[in-house]
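Risk register update: the risk of archive-format incompatibility is retired. Evidence:
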Amino acid sequence: MHSSRYPNAAGVLGVLAFSTVRVLGVLAFSTALNVVAQPPHPSAKAHPDFEGAWSSATAIPLERPARLKDKPYYTPEEAAQLQEKARGPDDDPLSRLETGSVMLPSLRTSIITDPPNGLLPSLTPLAAAAKRDRLERLHNPAAATDMGLQDRCLLFPTSVPPMIPYRYNSNYQIVQTDDAVVVQSEMIHDARVIRLDRRSHLPSNIRQWLGDSLGHWEGATLVVDTTNFNDAGGFYGDAGGMYGWDRNMHVVERFSLIDANTILYRFEVEDPTAYTQPWKGELTMRRASSPPFEYACHEGNQDLPNILKLSASQR
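Archived output:
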């Protein structure tokens, strides 16, 4: 048997292998440390942070009450008195929206800021005719489709841009990333995705309940442009009793932080087949102490079949 010319070759190779693995391990660990230590990429956190739970509950009505037709703002003293006042007649702001909700900081007498009279513009003749037909079917329903969107557990106006407060549950959860801002509304647990990574709207043949929302930043303000609504919402006043829309509605929203706990929400609405002119509005949203509750609209809901049975019995 011949002896090896390299009696320690196996040992040397073992040491080299161990050293190589050790060096590679150190390099890998160092690389990992370098990755962690690198400054973060620009992200949503470079912009104002809208994440969290919010409420738009307000004592300010969408339209200015008739008795305040020449008064666009309350004085601070008047606002404080109204905050304490119990719900009154229909023309009282507190009769329509949540008790205990706030009027500050805007002191406005209506959410609508333009037209200057604080009222929705007149409907076009075709839209007015559609509204009359819609209300007639709503008051004498023969089928589920004659009922309002909220009665059918399909949609509430709080989730559709512009996000008009309702009498209750005007609550939202906002999630913000680099590519999108998601606004989940409590009623009826809809989640609207505002895309920040796309510059063109969907093709015109694609229509959605909440439209197609594209967002971009203008300084510290998130600007959201929404089109591509469907026609199913064209009830002109029946969608929660607030306002109406159709496939031609175009909404521009602006979200700005007044402070860490307050969003200034401004919007512009243009819908030439519904309204005789564009209209604008603004309100504030306050940071909430807890996220929205689940709004289980369909579960155990017997209202719709009972309403239809009652309507049929009266014909």
